[in-house]
Task: structure prediction
Amino acid sequence: MSKIFSVIQKTALVAGVMMAVQSCKIDIMPTNRYTEEAIWNNPSNVELYIAGMYSEFKTFQFGSFPIGYSNATDALSDIMKYTATVAGNGTVNLLATDASRVNAAAPQLSYWSDAYTRIRRINEFLDGVANYGKIDATTKTQYAAEARFIRGYVYFWLAKLHGSVILLDNMGQYNTSLHQRASEEDVWKFIAADFQYAGENLPKQWGSTKTGRATKGAAYGMLARTWLYAASIADYDKKQFNSDELTGVSAANAQTYYQNAANAAQVVIDLAKEGYYELEGTFANAFINKNSKESVFKISYVSPQLTHAFDLGYAPPGDASGQCLVYGVPTAELVNEFEMSDGTKFSWTNSTQAANPYTNREDRFYATVLYNNATWKKRTINTTVNGGTEGFIQFGLSTDPHKTVTGYYIKKMLDSTNTTFVAYGSTQDWNEMRYAEVLLIHAEAEAKLNNIGLAQESLNAVRRRAKLPNTPASTTAQLMEAVEHERKVELAFEGHRYWDLRRWRKAHIVLNNVKFTGHKITPSGSTYTYETVSADNMNRQFTPALYYIPIPSTELLNNTMLTQIKGW
Result:
């Protein structure tokens, strides 16, 4: 038998396969080995296999990336600061301040091996179900749609990292280990085709026994995200940053791809009009309501079978007698971005605002950030320089301080009712895609198509939920500025910011030769003084070469037809 199952999958399928073996004649079904026919003939095995493949989405849950430890990619950007200075919890800081750490020998931001292992499993599944599955044609198509949804997601991550990668979609291609990269444009088209197929063949909603499975709305949401990335690269890259013949997307196709993104997002918006999706009434509820219609695609958790450690990683230390790890905290750059409740910009040069910087801010601020004197779990957060367990510490004074280095803690996505997460973990769901993101994708795509009214409509829907006035933006340039702002605050800590700056080709400007900041807060009688201090001990580095992460050199040794991306 070909090696189509991982150890875990093979173990899980033994019982089902043995039942199939026992029900067949011995001269047809040998008892000393499993055959592909035995596995795929049993519908229970097929169901178990596809359900197991959804575990891939946990790789990037809560905006994380497997850089040894699951560091958050938002910490490579301007909205989050990781607190540790050493490899492990602080690996993301080392990468953010030393671009040379990303290289072909040790690319650090690497998903290649795991991704292609998963892609092979998916292709084996597609082949096995198509050729041996004893299920009706409609169910076969539905399973294929789910598998291609997952494959599209895996390739989406490869494309974000490398642009040009190897495309594999059938088992015949595995007869040789030698493959060259496809063009980046063909990669984005391949991903789009997977999501398009999924969208055309998945149900609008599953029954209660299949909660968490991909739906038509999830597929079209991912399709919109895919085309937006392809359009952005066509629009902003223009071969300025890499000379490789296989990287880049034709600038002539930018408008077509923006239109594709708008069309896909519109499908989800139409589904919302049918009642399948809607924004939560309050921003915070989008992350704590397990039955939220704002979830377009999510990973569900339930104790004790399946839990996660987000609270342990990000809650303020007073939550668990100092046992919280406090991996990352909000930067002043993010805090300053939140508007006042009337929609005006916050500014430290405004004496009234600066005197009480956490008063009369927009709703999303209070749902996203824990600040000095905020109420949390029946206590008052103290992030001043002498604030004790939760007080400010200058970055670099401790290798792993487990407390804030910016004067702030993350609140968004924490469970305010969970007091036992150290022992029992956490169960709030992870939203891989929210309806708010779909609206922002639609707004951006329509703005780029100069459909001002449509862009404003989607953008304002997000703002209205935050109780903010409609955007004053009325040109494409103004709307893009507004979209960039909204994505920064609405999607904070959900793993978008670093990748947004990359696709807009702004990372080498925003994330280079700069130190991000926090606020050192000192009591002064009955008031406080706020000093802006560096949360970095070295300048950030983002070189243009980083728009395309190198392929691991070991892959080049294993596949002599594969060439390295130029510049590495």
Observations:
- The chain is about 40% helix and 10% strand.
- Residues 66 and 309 are 15 Å apart (CA to CA).
- Confidence is low (pLDDT under 50) at residues 1-33.
